[in-house]
Amino acid sequence: MTETDSQPIAENEQVKELLALLKDNNTPGYEEFAKLIEHVTGMEQRLLEATEELKAVRQEMQGLQNHSLKDTLQKSCKAMEMNISVMRHRLSELKGQIINGCRNILADFRERGTVALNGITQFLHVRPVLESIQSAAEKSMQANNRAVARIDAFSTEYHEMERHLKNMGLAIQGKPAETDAKENGKIARVFKGAFKVEGALISSINRNAEWALNTLARLEQTAERRPSVLEAMREQAAKTEPAKKQPASSHDKESR
């Protein structure tokens, strides 16, 4: 795990410094950038909680005696773990891009002053990685829904069969049928509840990704309303392009 992964983005020194500068200079786009950091922080927290919840489910499964239920849960956990792994990787990439962008703007600020703060629009390029986080969250939500449905189907089928066989025996003995929930049914409900908690956490990640994308759209609108910001964007792009070879002057051509 890298430092970028372990440290919350809101605690990063470059992020905090740039946020303070943007606020102090009343820079257009400050509110959008602050919201972006807030949404990324939300994704960080929910992803950590989702990872821990899934780990707890894995540990609980080790003691299951019912192999059919255990197999069903293991398949569901594996699918969600893969999607969470993708989200964790993409979130690390997103944080790295944001921190690097802050570092570049701060360095430019030390050279050119407040005009460099218009470079905040460079954060628009994080859209693809945000979209990939949202996509992974949606896939994980689908896997979670399938897990809950499988638990329901297993519980219904298994306990209906168990109740039927038990009541046949009771009928032979002339005893009334049992209607109380059996222990295995309670276990299934416990796991179903755990998966629902997991689903709520993943849903929160999905919402934060959507809110972050909406924030980027507002940041883009801010840039479109200010020609000076667009000009700053063009200057920033020109800096990143490799220097082009200058054509020879007419004087040089005549002297050859």
Question: How would you sum up the global shape?
Answer: elongated
Number of strands: 0
Beta-strand portion reads under 5%
Q: Structural class, please?
A: mainly alpha
Stretches with pLDDT under 50, minimum 5 residues: none
Indicate the mean pLDDT.
79
SSE string, helix = H, strand = E?
A: HHHHHHHH
- The N- to C-terminal Cα distance equals 60 Å
| C-alpha-based Rg, rounded | 28 Å
How many helical elements?
Answer: 8
Considering DSSP H and I runs of 4 or more, what fraction of the residues is helical? Answer: over 70%
How would you characterize the largest beta sheet? none
Overall description:
The chain is mainly α and 256 residues long. 79% of the residues lie in helices and 0% in strands. The protein has eight helices and no strands. It has helices at residues 3-6, 13-24, 30-61, 67-112, 127-172, 183-225, 227-240, 250-255. Helix 2 crosses helix 4, helix 3 runs antiparallel to helix 4 (67-112) and helix 3 runs antiparallel to helix 6. The radius of gyration is 28 Å and the shape is elongated.
Salient structural properties:
256 residues, elongated, mainly alpha, single chain
Summarize the structure.
The protein is mostly helical. 79% of the residues lie in helices and 0% in strands.
Blueprint of the fold:
Blueprint: H1 3-6, H2 13-24, H3 30-61, H4 67-112, H5 127-172, H6 183-225, H7 227-240, H8 250-255
